[in-house]
Design brief:
Number of strands: 0
Order of helices and strands: HHHHHHHHHHHHHHH
Structural class: mainly alpha
Helix content: 55-70%
Strand content: under 5%
Radius of gyration: 25 Å
Largest sheet: none
Length: 401
């Protein structure tokens, strides 16, 4: 069984596959090997300091409710410092786990190596014990001040913290909007609730403003000239895939309604085109139903998060095409290719579990071609290897390498 949801899940447009392969060629062999910017590497190519600083201020202000410039620096320091603190703890814990695995594998085979590992483990334990949850201890005031004054000179570390913060805030806003706008009683023609109070509507409008500010800043951060053709094709592919996934979920009547709506949109498109030509003188307890409901909710959340496809990125598309329960296993295999997961050997369950976590040859081949550098950037150019693997299979790229 493949990691893709169904056998028919393949790229819908040849132009998407072509754009993906062309863009993949721009980054697959160009990952930086350290945390410093390589010589000549422009992290924020084509974005002015004024434009970026304004977007950062707006995002922090709309999130915190604070408008005074003098307070925005301390607020941003708390936001990013908290993320940095959590990341440092996670990195330290992962390093400790890796040392424990090395010690277990070594098992007194090499006493000198074992002694060095134990010394390194003691240092990490000491570091872990003194890590403070105070955000100010994990990001300097000068670092945050530079984000507002000279954002284009930000470090890779600051860049990744800022992106992580935006992802978290955007996801929270999408969930809050979904809960607030989900129909509970009658439904208006636009699909929204018809029982929203004036106070609730104010909160919803504010949440939309927050989401807009987050998206605007993120778009500036991930802008890359080499991405532009691919980004256009992602949005087109995403829209087509969203329609197909919706048709798979909806019942007969709802599909008819969707097609009727689509027909009206197409008729309007034809009418507008013909008019312009004239004016210009030119020519309930059902398990299957439960799965559909879950799929529908995920589809709605995805569409909300992407503003119905306008903000769609490659990761959003991947949520439509992948089998969810295999993603974590694929991540493990990509990050730790030499490790193995113990599979229960109970006679009643072994076959089911093995079939759940076995990958087709195309996925294995794509995973092997998706190199992962744990010190690489999260810039949109150096992708998550899971995304690369999924899109390689989706577009048949792994068969061309």
């Amino acid at each position: 069984m493949s990691i893709l949801r169904r056998d028919d899940v393949r790229s819908l447009y040849g132009s998407f596959s072509d754009a993906y392969r062309a863009y993949r060629d721009t980054f697959k062999n160009g990952r930086p090997l350290n945390r410093n910017k390589p010589k000549g590497y422009d992290l924020l190519k084509g974005v002015s300091d004024d434009e970026l600083a304004k977007a950062i201020r707006e995002a922090v202000s709309i999130c915190s409710g604070e408008t005074k410039k003098s307070k925005l620096t301390s607020i941003m320091r708390a936001y990013l410092g908290s993320i940095s603190y959590q990341k440092e703890i996670e990195d330290t814990d992962r390093a400790l786990e890796a040392i424990d695995e090395d010690l277990e594998e070594n098992a007194r085979k090499d006493e000198d190596k074992e002694r060095k590992l134990l010394i390194e483990k003691r240092k990490l334990i000491d570091k872990r014990s003194i890590l403070s949850p105070n955000p100010n201890d994990h990001i300097s005031l000068k670092t945050v001040q530079n984000l507002f004054s000279k954002p284009s000179e930000m470090s890779i570390h600051s860049y990744e913290l800022l992106l992580t913060w935006l992802e978290e805030e955007s996801s929270n806003s999408v969930i809050r909007l979904y809960e607030a706008e989900r129909p509970q009683g009658g439904i208006n023609p636009d699909g929204a609730r018809d029982d929203i109070s004036e106070e609730d509507q104010i909160d919803i409008n504010r949440e939309r403003e927050k989401l807009s500010a987050y998206r605007n800043l993120k778009q500036l951060l991930i802008t890359r000239p080499e991405r532009e053709p691919f980004e256009r094709e992602v949005k087109k592919e995403y829209s087509a895939r969203a329609l197909i996934e919706a048709i798979n979920v909806l019942g007969d009547e709802d599909r008819r309604y969707l097609l009727k709506t689509l027909t009206l949109l197409l008729e309007r498109f034809v009418f507008q085109y013909e008019s312009s030509c004239v004016s210009e003188r030119q020519p309930v307890f059902d398990s299957a139903k439960d799965r559909d409901v879950v799929a529908a909710k995920n589809l709605v959340l995805n569409l909300l998060r992407t503003d119905c496809g306008r903000e769609a990125e490659e990761d959003d598309l991947c949520q439509f095409i992948a089998t969810p329960n295999k993603i974590s296993y694929l991540m493990f295999k990509l990050f730790f290719p030499e490790s193995s997961i113990e599979i229960p050997t109970d006679a009643n369950t072994t076959s089911d579990i093995r079939s759940d976590f076995s990958f087709d040859e195309d996925v294995e081949q794509a995973a092997l071609s998706s190199r992962y550098d744990p010190k690489g950037l999260s810039t949109g150019v150096e992708w998550n290897p899971v995304t690369v693997t999924l899109l390689d299979v989706y577009t048949g790229t792994q068969n061309r390498q």
